[in-house]
Amino acid sequence: MPRLALRVMAAVLGTLTLVTGCSSGGDGGSGKGKRPAGAHVTIRVPADAPTISAAVSLARPGDLVLVSPGVYHESVRIGTPRITLRGASRAGVVIDGRLQQPNGVVVAAPGVAVENLTVENNTQNGVLVTGSARAVAGLPGRSGGYDTGDEPVTFLKSFLVSYVTATRNGLYGIYAFSAQNGVIEHSYTSGGADSGIYVGQCKPCRVVVRDNVAELNAVGYEGTNASGDMYVVGNRLVGNRVGLTTDSDHLEKLLPQRGAVVAGNLIADNQQARTPEQADGGWGIGVGVDGGSGNQFVRNRIAGNADAGFVITATADLPPDGNEITDNAFAANGVDVGWTFPTATKGHGNCLHGNTLRTTAPARLAATASCPVPATSLTPSGTWARPTAPAGIPFTDVAAPGPQSQFPNATTAGATAVPAVPALPDLASIPLPAPSLLAAGARVPTS
């Protein structure tokens, strides 16, 4: 056997000895070491295991995998429940796919926390959280996302993605698909060739997306077939091609999309040319509703989007019905609110109330579609002058991220206990972002 192979084998055997030798007691035949029942350990990379994947394979529920700064060329799959994977430094711990692997981190077990690290250069996703076996296997769908065919819907329940930087990934930066009861927070995404943050195929979702920054993506945040207790609050969605979309799509199950709350977000200047070109050509739009229904858009600041601040339209045979747009501040958009239905599929019961508006298409929507309106009331359709989208750039060419905030006490805090069901936001307590937050780099307060 070559010397290099012998050294690698010795390192792995040494890792096993070190980790299993740190505690004693029966393990029920798990093969993952002797320790007292209920004991939790910290497995350090590379001190206790040579790779992140090796450390994760040694971890048991309640353990912390703590990763030292370095560039790790691996795809990490977490299949054991209630593990915490944390970087010692958000910018210093980099999982780099080198455009040779589909995903940086795949969470396929409940109660897992992924914290304080960077994932980049993956052909599909930076972080994927999913209960779908086909998605775990890295089988991409058409036009982005995952068309899982006749696979039954299976939810992964309970997850946390926090203080993660996901940049220059070929589909989504952070992707929760067929997953419930989770939180995506304090994270930064850029260079997502489809979306920076994506939540898809959940009902009821019970997912909270809060206090994130998404910039230089094709779409900042996208929710597809994401229904019921789906909250997008206090995020900065600025400088993408499209800021936020919520939609229904036949490529995923659990149609139609219904019942999301989008509140207290800054959605501005989503007209950047140096971004990945989205497949359907969207550009210059703050918020887009495409076949989504029963959603609430409350106290968002929507400004400087060259095409439109807020667009409602239909997708294929799926109408957008009963969306409420209330108490939002619009400014300096091509048109503040534009409702357009170019096909036979129309919307019903969509309405506005209490917004700061300059222009709408059709005109006078604030008066003619003032909330409440009958559920059967036909949503009017209009047209407006729409700018031509500039050519995009490859996701690999998007600008590198700037400094981001760190997970507090990353190297000294214990493992994170992820709740079975997250606390859902109190809508009444979510404020309208101040105009000063339009300044570059300003964060939106979540309380």
UniProtKB/TrEMBL annotation:
Q: Which UniProt keywords apply?
A: Repeat
- What is the top-level taxon of the source organism? Bacteria
Q: Which residues form the Periplasmic copper-binding protein NosD beta helix domain?
A: 167-337
Supply the SMART domains for this chain.
Answer: PbH1
Give TM regions.
Answer: none
- Specify whether Repeat is a keyword of the entry: yes
Look up keyword Repeat and say if it applies. yes
Q: What is this protein called?
A: Right-handed parallel beta-helix repeat-containing protein
Native species: Actinacidiphila acididurans
Lineage at the top is: Bacteria, Bacillati, Actinomycetota, Actinomycetes, Kitasatosporales
